[in-house]
């Protein structure tokens, strides 16, 4: 979308909100079906919105959705797809407050989560962070919490 200038971060705010609303509604529709492969692909493809939308809109509209899907999607591939998309969004955040909020929420909800499934998902997230971000970013945000897992 961004390559063809169909949707850019400078597009009218109302148009962007309408687009995000339609995408969220489509994702919600797919999430309640038994077609988990389609749902996982939908979550994966949502990462393509990162360069097309303003970071504040991503942070307020799509980041919470990815956290919800990481916690509530039953199939593991859907949870992993939501996590990877969330990390793509993390890369596109402008402010350190937004980046810190996402990182801290990942640690508090998943590393310090009460279920082994959440903690195992955090291990997968940590692996993705190592693949997608610098070692310094990993060390400053995820290394100590990862060592504290038990």
TrEMBL record:
User: Which InterPro entries does the entry link to?
Assistant: ARM-like, PPP4R4
GO CC entries: cytosol; protein serine/threonine phosphatase complex
Molecular functions (GO terms): protein phosphatase regulator activity
- PANTHER family reported for this sequence: PROTEIN PHOSPHATASE 4 REGULATORY SUBUNIT 4 PPP4R4 (PTHR21467), SERINE_THREONINE-PROTEIN PHOSPHATASE 4 REGULATORY SUBUNIT 4 (PTHR21467:SF0)
| UniProt protein name | Uncharacterized protein
């Amino acid at each position: 979308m961004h390559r063809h200038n169909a949707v850019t971060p400078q597009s009218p705010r109302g148009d962007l909100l309408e687009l995000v609303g339609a995408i969220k509604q489509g994702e919600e529709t797919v999430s309640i079906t038994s077609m988990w492969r389609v749902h996982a692909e939908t979550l994966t493809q949502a990462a393509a919105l990162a360069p097309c939308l303003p970071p504040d809109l991503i942070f307020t509209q799509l980041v919470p959705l990815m956290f919800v899907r990481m916690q509530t999607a039953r199939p593991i591939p859907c949870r992993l797809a939501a996590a990877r998309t969330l990390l793509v969004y993390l890369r596109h955040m402008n402010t350190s407050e937004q980046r810190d909020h996402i990182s801290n929420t990942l640690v508090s909800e998943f590393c310090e989560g009460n279920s082994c499934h959440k903690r195992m998902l955090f291990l997968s997230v940590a692996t993705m962070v190592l693949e997608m971000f610098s070692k310094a970013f990993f060390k400053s945000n995820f290394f100590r919490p990862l060592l504290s897992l038990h």
